[in-house]
Amino acid sequence: MTQSEDSQIALERRLLYGLSFEWETARWMLPPQLRQKMRPPLFSIRAMEDRWGSWSREKREISVSRNLIHHHSWDALREVLLHEMAHQLADEVLLAFGEVPHGAKFLEACTLLRANPRASGKFPPLDERLSKPDGQPSDRIFRKVQKLLALAQSPNPHEAQTAMLRAHGLMAQYNGDLAAREERRSFVTAFLGKPALRHGPKEYALAHLLQDHYFVQGIWVPAYVVEKGKMGRVFEISGTLANVQIATYVYDFIIRFIDRQWREYNRDKGLNHFRERDFALGIIEGFRSKLRQPSSVGSRSTPGLLKIDDPQLSAYMAYRYPHARRFSRRGTRRDPQVVSDGRRIGSRLVIAKGISSPAGNRGLMIQDRSGDRGWPGKGQGDE
Q: What backbone torsions phi and psi does residue 197 show, to the nearest 5 degrees?
């Protein structure tokens, strides 16, 4: 057996281990009387040409496609797992005897598990679905925002900043109108960054920035960290398709910007990682102050990217995370000068549309998800 084959076997063992962790986490979404009746199944990875996963009642086994685990994100794998887990719940607990595979008991199981009832067969994996607009009217606004962010690449600092603030103003105008309307809307959910055992103040500050200024809501959720073979956490956001894509892109853009600026700033200083934290927080604070600047869109003036209350999105979050809890993080001592320098640099940050296009759907739970990616951002699927 070659070293490559040994590595493949070791990886798949970690992934199977991760599936069992994710299964157990999802089980806690169920009411106690149903949770107690759910018994762990067997898990396997198989070569499947016509489906992403399957549930075998006879073997008590959930299988996932080898193609899925090597060419798609952990989010996509988890979505398929929840779908197959819903089949298990319908068969073994809700007693869906004699029903068609996607019958009433299965749909009830999907509701209980917050699973996507369509995530079967060759239904596009969620990272593919979120890489493309869905053809709804909101996409016209999304394309206008894209064009403005493309103009934000201008070498003229004034033109670049004006284009970005106009894009933000358009987003504020559109989302304010959207929240005021009562027609039913659909929402999607996306991972930001990678699952990790620990997250620093930079990630928490960015999470607050996106929720306050980019029309999404989020929560830290358990997620398997493949590299460590343990459960960690990841920040998960929800919103309309366009807003989730934009927020995901902004997150990646700012992370890369902070890394580049820190390398330049610290080239001859030799500062430690605590000062890197201070510098990052300063950049985020500086950028946040810019987002509060007013912007004109057409004949309307907006007061900057302000938080908009969206009852439908709040109801979706309450359904998706019924056991969510709030907690606060204590502040830490910061170097005022480093923070001030970061704030000054952050005030000049301009979010611009990426030029390159996505380079296909890599096996993102195996490779680094934090690298450069084109527009739009990728994330987790929809309901």
A: -70, -35
Contact 147/255 with Cβ under 8 angstroms? no
Where are the chain's structural domains? 3-129, 138-346
| Spatial strand order in the sheet of 188-196 | 188-196, 230-239, 217-225
Question: For the segment 136-179, what is each residue's pLDDT rounded down to a tens digit?
Answer: 555 566 677 777 777 767 777 777 777 777 777 777 777 777 77
Q: Which long-range contacts (CB under 8 A, 24 or more apart) does 319-327 make?
A: 319/114, 320/114, 320/189, 320/238, 320/383, 321/219, 321/221, 322/29, 323/28, 323/29, 324/219
Q: What angle do CA 185, 190, 195 make, to 5 degrees?
A: 160
Contact by Cβ (8 Å): 68, 53: yes
- Would strands 61-65 and 42-46 be described as parallel, antiparallel, or unpaired? parallel
pTM of the model: 0.81
Residue 89 to residues 40, 76, 205, 365: CA-CA distances in angstroms?
11, 20, 38, 27
Cβ 239 vs Cβ 179: under 8 Å: no
Which top CATH class is 3-129? Answer: alpha beta
